[in-house]
Amino acid sequence: MMSESAESNLNTNTMKNVGISDYLSIFKDNGTYGVTCAVIVAIVTPILLSLVLQGRKKLKQRGVPVQVGGEAGFAVRNARFPKLVEVPWEGATTMAALFEQSCKRYSQQNFLGTRKVIAKDLVTSSDGRKFEKLHLGEYQWETYRQIFDRACNFASGLLKLGHDVDTRAAIFSETRAEWLIAFQACFRQNITVVTIYASLGDDALIHSLNETQVTTLICDSKQLKKLAALSSSLTTLRNIIYFDDEDSSSGSTVTQESGNWQVSSFSEVEKLGRNNPAQPNLPIKKDIAVIMYTSGSTGLPKGVMMTHGNIVATAAAVMTVIPSIGRKDVYLAYLPLAHVFELAAETVMLTAGAAIGYGSALTLTDTSNKIKKGTKGDASVLKPTLMAAVPAILDRVRDGVVKKVEEKGGIVKKLFKIAYSRRLVAIEGSWFGAWGVEALLWDIVVFKKIRSILGGEIRFMLCGGAPLSGDTQRFINICMGAPIGQGYGLTETCAGAAFSEWDDISVGRVGPPLPSCYIKLVSWEEGGYTISDKPMPRGEVVVGGASVTAGYFSNDAKTAEVYKVDEKGMHWFYTGDIGRFHPDGCLEIIDRKKDIVKLQHGEYISLGKVEAALVSSKYVENIMVYADPYHNFCVALVVPARQTLEGWAKESGIKYNDFPELCEKAEAKNEVQQSLLKEAKAAKLDKFEIPAKIKLLPDPWTPESGLVTAALKLKREQLKAKFKDELDKLYK
After folding, report:
1. Neighbouring residues of 382: CB distance < 8 A, sequence distance ≥ 6
2. Cα–Cα distance measured from residue 472 to residue 470, given in angstroms and rounded to the nearest whole number
3. Is 68 helix (H, G, I), strand (E, B) or coil?
4. 472-482 pLDDT, tens digit each
5. Which pLDDT tens digit goes with each residue over 574-591?
6. Which one has a higher pLDDT value, 67 or 396?
7. Which of 9, 449, 657, 685 has a C-alpha 20 to 30 A away from that of 346?
8. Where is the AMP-dependent synthetase/ligase domain (predicted)?
9. Dihedral of CA 7/8/9/13: which sign?
10. Count of H helices and E strands in the chain?
């Protein structure tokens, strides 16, 4: 179900009642009454036809029950594939084979593109803070053939540099073309790659490198500057390779401060390999390709061991659900490649022969924080057809559009609401109405400018990393004119588990199982979720099949806790998420075992469920709900949306010196709490699920602060530890 959003001010129940008279009044006010009369037939016809066709819709079966081994439960497979999909084509059983074969198939196609930095400027804001602004040029492309040659050269260079093929290499950098080149190069010599988030703190970085005994570290200059201070703690590191198109002086700095490391630039290693070519040492399907360190929500990060077969299977499966994906597609890459979601997405693009243009979250649009005024953002220049996003980014796109519409007001606001409502009726009633003549009219009048934010050519979006709200999903469907494939997966399942299909118009679900795996629900009696529940079976989500990884590196106890092997040899991963299967075989995630707290009077409260409802408030940038089992109510820490709260304060005549002071104002707390109450009622939360007290926190939660993961999920333990005093006060 789609919940109401105070932030969007789009009351769908009201908008569905908009009639033809509203169209006439809009255009009459705009002096184009006659033009409207000419298009009434074009509008009315698809509306009437959609009503006729609506009664003929049949439930499409997307997943079907299947008998599998292991613990008893309710298991489902993809309805279109009776057998698990493991490879995109015969022979592509490893990442090395897939890369080489794709580069031969698409040799002359553009593969990796990067924008040239023309200039960097420092801009001082009104409060004295300095921000870097970039003047970026056009994308400069290299073909599949050129990238393959570079990867081969880098692989040979690693050997000549002295890297022992029996040891591991790590990549510690933001997403960029060289990241993927180094990644593929390692597989040419069957070197396992350790991936580490660029936002990980020093302790986690040291733990990850030492635990896996990394001898070669590949990084950008920003990360390189951190390493000198950590040299005494990194016990196995011998080689450092840095990307040399930024601040190349960093290399000499590290060399001077540590005599234990051999420091080389990326181009030097490529040149070394080009002059000293080595024969490849290719992996097999069961070899470990990647040890991916997740930032995790508790404690030190865990290293998930992914085989070559795991990554290839996920890519092959996702290929089957993206409509008509191929060499004409252009993909905008900006999410962290050290996260399994982006790694899987780029592997899919490699398999399809698509072009990958690199950008960043800070240069994504024309108004992004690091874009110099007058310079186009990455999306405007690249004009991607495919794009991946986490819900937080899509929420920001929606919020930005709604804010602009609200600022315009008047005729623009009214016209937008009518256009939105008509497209909503069309999408929820029949795809015919969504893409007919009326849709073309609204695209020209209203939505064309909105779509230009992301380049104007988006035809499909992939979303993952966290649950996507129904409001935002519909907003992107309508305003961007593109279906969203909402994925569900974990690092432990190599991103592969479930994926909603392009023609599924429902919201709040994550689709049927990908054809690379089975999904089973196992009863959790203690939490009250069982496979015999009516009207739908419910239970813990357990994933089995080709995409399930090999376990945690050097952590047999944790591996044994959540990984199981059944009597047929199939690996199963116990996710800790609670789901239910709809009659058409689509999965919906409804809870998480770790997020459920039993209150003093015996009521169970799902923290994630409450947060998902309350984050829709226009005042909420981020929120963590906390429940003490020795009390009968919950409380919340709220990071307010600064501009929105300050806007309210200005209109209300609230005096304050700075934002932290505003967050302490009783009036501000009351305004935010009333907004939360409104969202809670809309979501039909019980009284004990509504935070009785809140604390407004002025500073945002970022991966760099260690309070959220790279996928922007809450790190509850870290948040509870940092704000222990604030939480204690809320219960006094």
Report:
1. 113, 139, 330, 332, 357, 359, 455
2. 6
3. coil
4. 888 888 888 88
5. 999 999 999 999 999 988
6. 67
7. 449
8. 134-553
9. negative
10. 26, 28
